[in-house]
């Protein structure tokens, strides 16, 4: 089932693709939180369609064999899977570095101890705010903030390195200083302060999520000051809003370059939003070997290199820095995944998007969230 067919082997071109460094293992789309910026696909995978423990074990072994170094167990909420501890154990057996990306809901002290005993290397805990009033409102889950604080204590007690993952937007950007302080108090070694990307579900909440220019400028200044002050204590990764940047981000480090995502039902995607690109179809680990999918599948090769790029990108000196930016953003705003990333200042759409988002950001009465639920 996993080996290429003879016809595939014969047809195989002499293509050398370096292996991915990381695999995002999206164990489930089930999640107790209802975040208005959820980055999962609009069409969620049901529990009955999820890969089994045996399927995931095979995928983890294939990942290690092809040269993957890190596996990020994610979701949804990966703790919703009762076999999470087993999967961490299997990943460690094959020498994968294991990271758990979690909201903390569904973990208990016993489970954190067991995960640590099975060899979990690192925990990435999301926080939606610095107190229950903001955090539980954004996450749409009462009691979530207190649970996260308990999980951070259990993680620290096990001596596991912790990263705090803070998604920032209009409701919490003014609290970025407190968010950094919270990460220090929780004993985190790193914090990722990422302004919400307006993709997928977040598009429904764009007017409620986009911060004003003044908020972003204040946030950037706070982050720069804290970076200096907390050298040696806390590493601060910072992602400003796309429409305030001059150049697009190297989304996913480049399409099919450093990472792949395995969806709960086994589909393998180059990025979390790739399914929004209608002309692509995605191979499944139930039928194909992971290395074949990475090296040979049409979806992974669609935006490698620069043949696909519009002329302005192909002749741009930054094409080896941002690899043409984000294809899903081009799809979302330009309706064409081959178009220039509309967040690039050279894109003809950039000024229009900037003005639209800026106008929404200063609306004194932003709309209520449209929460995400299964
Ligand atoms: Fe798909 Fe950026 S999210 S390429």
UniProtKB/TrEMBL annotation:
UniProt cofactor(s): [4Fe-4S] cluster
EC number, UniProt record: 1.21.98.4
Single Gene Ontology BP annotation: pyrroloquinoline quinone biosynthetic process
Catalytic activity: [PQQ precursor protein] + S-adenosyl-L-methionine = E-Y cross-linked-[PQQ precursor protein] + 5'-deoxyadenosine + L-methionine + H(+)
A Pfam family annotated for this UniProt entry: SPASM
Pathway(s) where this gene product acts: Cofactor biosynthesis; pyrroloquinoline quinone biosynthesis
Binding annotation for [4Fe-4S] cluster: 31, 35, 38
Subunit structure: Interacts with PqqD. The interaction is necessary for activity of PqqE.
NCBIfam families assigned to the protein according to its UniProt record, in alphabetical order: PQQ_syn_pqqE, rSAM_more_4Fe4S
Alphabetical list of PANTHER family matching this protein: PQQA PEPTIDE CYCLASE, RADICAL SAM DOMAIN PROTEIN
Descriptive protein name: PqqA peptide cyclase
Source organism of the structure: Oharaeibacter diazotrophicus
Name of the gene this protein is made from: pqqE
């Amino acid at each position: 089932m996993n080996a290429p067919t003879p016809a595939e082997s014969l047809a195989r071109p002499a293509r050398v693709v370096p292996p991915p460094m990381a695999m995002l293992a999206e164990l489930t789309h089930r999640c107790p939180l209802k975040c208005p910026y959820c980055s999962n696909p609009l069409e969620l995978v049901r529990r009955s369609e999820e890969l089994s423990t045996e399927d995931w074990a095979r995928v983890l072994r294939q990942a290690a064999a092809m040269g993957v170094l890190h596996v990020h167990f994610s979701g949804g909420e990966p703790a919703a899977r009762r076999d999470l501890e087993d999967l961490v154990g299997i990943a460690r057996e094959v020498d994968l570095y294991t990271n758990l990306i979690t909201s903390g809901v569904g973990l208990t002290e016993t489970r954190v101890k067991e995960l640590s005993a099975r060899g979990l290397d690192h925990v990435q805990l999301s926080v939606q705010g610095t107190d229950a009033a903001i955090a539980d409102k954004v996450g749409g889950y009462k009691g979530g903030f207190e649970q996260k604080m308990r999980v951070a204590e259990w993680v620290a007690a096990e001596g596991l390195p912790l990263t705090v993952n803070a998604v920032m937007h209009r409701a919490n950007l003014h609290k970025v200083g407190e968010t950094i302080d919270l990460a220090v108090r929780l004993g985190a070694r790193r914090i990722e302060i990422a302004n919400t990307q307006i993709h997928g579900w977040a598009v429904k909440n764009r007017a409620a999520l986009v911060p004003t220019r003044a908020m972003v400028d204040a946030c950037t200044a706070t982050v720069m000051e804290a970076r200096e002050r907390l050298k040696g204590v806390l590493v601060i990764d910072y992602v400003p809003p796309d429409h305030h940047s001059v150049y697009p981000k190297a989304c996913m480090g480049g399409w099919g370059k450093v990472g792949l995502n395995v969806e709960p039902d086994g589909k393998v995607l180059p990025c979390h939003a790739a399914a929004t690109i209608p002309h692509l179809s995605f191979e499944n680990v139930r039928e194909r070997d992971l290395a074949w999918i990475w090296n040979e599948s049409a979806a992974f090769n669609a935006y490698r290199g620069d043949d696909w790029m519009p002329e302005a990108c192909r002749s741009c000196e930054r094409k080896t820095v941002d690899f043409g930016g984000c294809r899903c953003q081009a799809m979302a705003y330009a309706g064409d995944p081959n178009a220039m990333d509309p967040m690039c200042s050279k894109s003809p759409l950039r000024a229009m998007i900037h003005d639209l988002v800026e106008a929404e950001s200063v609306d004194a009465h932003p709309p209520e969230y449209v929460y995400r639920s299964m």
